[in-house]
Amino acid sequence: MSTFVGIDPGLAATGVAVVTGSAMAVTGYSYKVIRTDAGDSTPERLNLIFGELSQTFDQVRPDAVIVEDVFSLARYPKSGISLGQVIGVVMLAACRCGIVVHEIAVREVKQILTGNGNSGKKQLEESVRRRLGHPEPIRPFHASDALSLALVGLYRAGSDVAAQFAGSPKKGIRK
């Protein structure tokens, strides 16, 4: 039995999902969204995300954390910077709990789960819902995106390639 935490990073809302199972069989899942107040300073918002993630990692003790890789849209360069800050907080929280972190591109996740690396959020959410047998839409999309990342972690761990992720994992250290 393996447990993976998927993280869809965002400064305003970070999706967090836990998937447990073996190979392609999911035996349990949960999800939540960490929301921050736009009126708070960036350090305060990052600290809130760090605290919530640290608590989740301590409680769940996952085999690995799967986080969406950094990307930036040319028309919104500042969003890439804040995304990078949140991913840094995710990595720090996991590292302090001694948990391996894998980064994966969202296009790769979409390709694996929908067969189309350019699929939209709704199509990805529907694929996640179908795979989990979840009866109603998973909202917000940050939660379904986090579930998609955790599912890919589980599927790869149970595959013949045994957790072959792009790049090398970042291994955490114990406090």
Structural description of this entry:
The protein is of the alpha/beta class. It has a single domain (2-157), classed as Ribonuclease H-like superfamily/Ribonuclease H (Nucleotidyltransferase, domain 5, 2-Layer Sandwich). 44% of the residues lie in helices and 22% in strands. The chain is built from 5 helices and 5 strands. The chain has helices at residues 42-60, 77-96, 106-114, 121-132, 141-157, and strands at residues 2-8, 13-22, 25-35, 64-68, 100-104. It has a 5-stranded mixed sheet. β1 and β2 (13-22) form a beta hairpin. α1 (42-60) runs parallel beside α2 and α4 (121-132) packs across α5 (141-157). Residues 160-168 have low confidence and may be disordered.
Q: Which properties best describe this structure?
A:
Nucleotidyltransferase, domain 5; single chain; 5 helices
